[in-house]
């Protein structure tokens, strides 16, 4: 590789070695090389189409760029810190391959619009891949839901037993969260799919370029209407980091529940050996490492979002070197989100089992059917608030007596209020309690079956 000792004849000396290393981004933006080559191929074709270079020169540039692509894939192109960034590395290698014509590739563009193009091409691909992983996660949730519509689990508010619910209903709540995650990414894709190529350093160019043609070659849906905005916009990246943070929030929430469910105190699930680890000194332990790691990794994604917001908040138009700091956070977020979705999908699909006998026991050992007693009285004409207070009284006395509501005799119920009849026992049976909540979106079995069908249809429609 030819070393560049000075930027141009404007400079008399080269960078201090430590400053050169500090300034370089090649260590991480090499991740963009395939996208840089793709963008450069489109730019070279556009230059030839508009007559800025000859058709023969355009073909030479494209041939050289594709050779670099093959060299990189074969492991034979490994630029070092002296190349500063991926854009210079490609241009210098291109010049070595095709000669002086390689120096014409940069006509009508700047590294500012070039890197903006690269990162958008990269994120477009990553958004699609994450959407596919979200679909896999949803399908894992739906698969369990279909098998557990009539499996009951305690429902909680404030982490206190509230009302029994269908386990499928609980799992489908996360499937709906993932659907919103998928939709957010689809919207962000549209705002990422805009071409800044040809905006130049900040003001466009004097050359008769065709920005719409290069955008078409790259599959962009539109071009930036303002060159200043084109080179300095990172809204799409902030939106991606924000959407990624929400994905991690949702994964972290179910992770926390899985950690609780796997504990001896809850004992709602059993972790399989393939998705858990042991202790170095306590042989009886089986640790929920996957959900713990996901819960921990959530913070790093939050951090990348905060970092980019902080970078952007004080930047004057247009491009500033600060924007070099956007890439590592984006790359790490992509890796973290994809890895977390894959790991959690495997955990749910093949790494745990629900302890249905324990779940059945759990919903029969508390007062989570108390609301249904109040509803029962209300259905008999007793004002709900009066019924609420009466049930509060019976719960208090039952606790003192060491009884559950199902253990009360009919005479004890009728002492509380004469409206109680034998059907109270059916009304407060956990399965009936759940089945009866058949309002739209509720935990009633009919509603849960319909919710599963609706989401599966929505997923299938998006795959068509």
Write up what this structure looks like.
- The two termini are 48 Å apart.
- The longest helix has 37 residues, at 111-147.
- This protein has 464 residues and is mainly alpha-helical.
- Strand 1 and strand 2 (160-166) form a beta hairpin.
- It is elongated.
- It has a two-stranded antiparallel sheet. Strands 3-4 form a two-stranded parallel sheet. A two-stranded antiparallel sheet has the order 5-6.
- Helix content is 61%, strand content 5%.
Task: Give the tags.
single chain, 5% strand, two-stranded antiparallel sheet, two-stranded parallel sheet, 464 residues, mainly alpha
Topology, element by element:
Blueprint: H1 17-23, H2 26-29, H3 33-49, H4 55-73, H5 86-98, H6 111-147, E1 152-157, E2 160-166, H7 167-192, E3 194-195, H8 211-217, E4 222-223, H9 227-232, H10 235-262, E5 269-271, H11 289-312, H12 326-350, E6 352-354, H13 356-362, H14 370-379, H15 384-401, H16 410-416, H17 424-427, H18 430-435, H19 445-463
Parallel strand pairs: 3-4
Antiparallel strand pairs: 1-2, 5-6
Mean pLDDT: 94
The portion of residues forming beta strands comes to under 5%
First-to-last CA distance: 48 Å
Helix count, DSSP H or I runs of 4 or more residues: 19
SSE class: mainly alpha
- Shape assignment: elongated
| Oligomeric state as shown | single chain
Fraction of residues in helices? 55-70%
Instruction: Outline the biggest β-sheet.
Output: 2 strands, antiparallel
Q: How many strand elements?
A: 6
| Poorly predicted tracts of residues | none
The strand order across the widest sheet is 1-2
Order of helices and strands: HHHHHHEEHEHEHHEHHEHHHHHHH
Rg computed from alpha carbons, rounded to a whole number of angstroms: 31 Å
